[in-house]
Write a sequence for this structure.
C-alpha cells in the first residue's frame, strides 16, 4: 500500500500480496505458513519447489551455476502465478526472502498496478541465532540446503533490510535509471516473467 493506513481508491478489499523478507533461518517459512493458514492465502515458497523438482541435487547441488539459473526462472514463474492469483482476488504469500530493496519495490509496484495492496513482512535474525537454527534444521533433515558459516556471514553483508517506509507501505521509489518502469526491471531480474503484467 503506497500511503498510510487507508486503502487507496481502486484497490481490492480483502486481498494483500505479502512479501516475506529475511535471511535463511529467520523463520520465514514458519511465518508464511501461519499467514497462509490465517488468511486463507496461496503460499509460494521457491525452496520447496526447487527441492521437489531437483530432488537428486542433495544438500549442495543448489550451488551450481546451472541450478542458480533454474532458480531464477522458477522464481519468475512463481511470481507470475502469485500476481495473477492476487489479481483474481486470492490472498498471496510470496516466501522468497527478497534480500534487495529493488526486488521488493518492483513487486510492490506490480501489486499496486494490479490494484492489490502489498505488505512487507520482515523477519530479522542475528547471525548466531541464524547459525543455530540452520544447524538444527540440517540435523533434523539432512536433505535441507547446506550453508557454510562463511556464506551466512557474507549474506548478512549483502542483505538490505527494509526501512520504515517499506514496512509502512509508503511511497514506492522510482525504477532504477535505464528502466521504463519497475516491471521492466523485474523482467530483467526474473527473465521467466512475461513482458507484460499478468492481469
Amino acid at each position: 500500500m503506497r500511503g498510510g493506513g487507508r486503502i487507496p481508491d481502486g484497490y481490492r478489499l480483502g486481498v494483500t500480496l505479502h512479501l516475506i523478507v529475511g535471511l535463511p533461518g529467520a523463520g520465514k517459512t514458519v511465518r508464511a505458513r501461519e499467514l497462509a493458514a490465517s488468511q486463507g492465502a496461496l503460499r509460494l515458497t521457491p525452496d520447496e519447489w526447487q527441492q521437489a523438482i531437483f530432488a537428486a541435487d542433495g544438500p549442495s547441488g543448489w550451488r551450481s551455476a546451472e541450478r542458480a539459473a533454474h532458480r531464477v526462472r522458477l522464481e519468475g514463474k512463481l511470481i507470475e502465478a502469485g500476481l495473477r492469483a492476487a489479481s483474481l482476488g486470492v490472498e498471496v504469500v510470496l516466501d522468497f526472502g527478497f534480500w534487495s530493496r529493488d526486488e521488493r519495490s518492483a513487486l510492490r509496484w506490480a501489486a499496486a498496478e494490479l490494484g492489490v495492496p502489498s505488505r512487507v513482512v520482515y523477519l530479522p535474525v542475528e547471525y548466531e541465532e541464524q547459525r543455530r537454527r540452520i544447524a538444527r534444521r540440517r540435523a533434523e533433515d539432512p536433505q535441507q540446503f547446506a550453508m557454510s558459516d562463511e556464506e551466512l556471514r557474507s549474506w548478512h553483508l549483502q542483505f538490505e533490510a527494509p526501512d520504515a517506509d517499506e514496512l509502512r507501505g509508503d511511497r514506492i521509489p522510482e525504477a532504477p535509471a535505464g528502466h521504463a518502469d519497475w516491471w521492466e526491471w523485474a523482467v530483467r531480474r526474473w527473465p521467466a516473467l512475461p513482458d507484460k503484467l499478468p492481469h
The chain has one domain: 17-189. The radius of gyration is 17 Å.
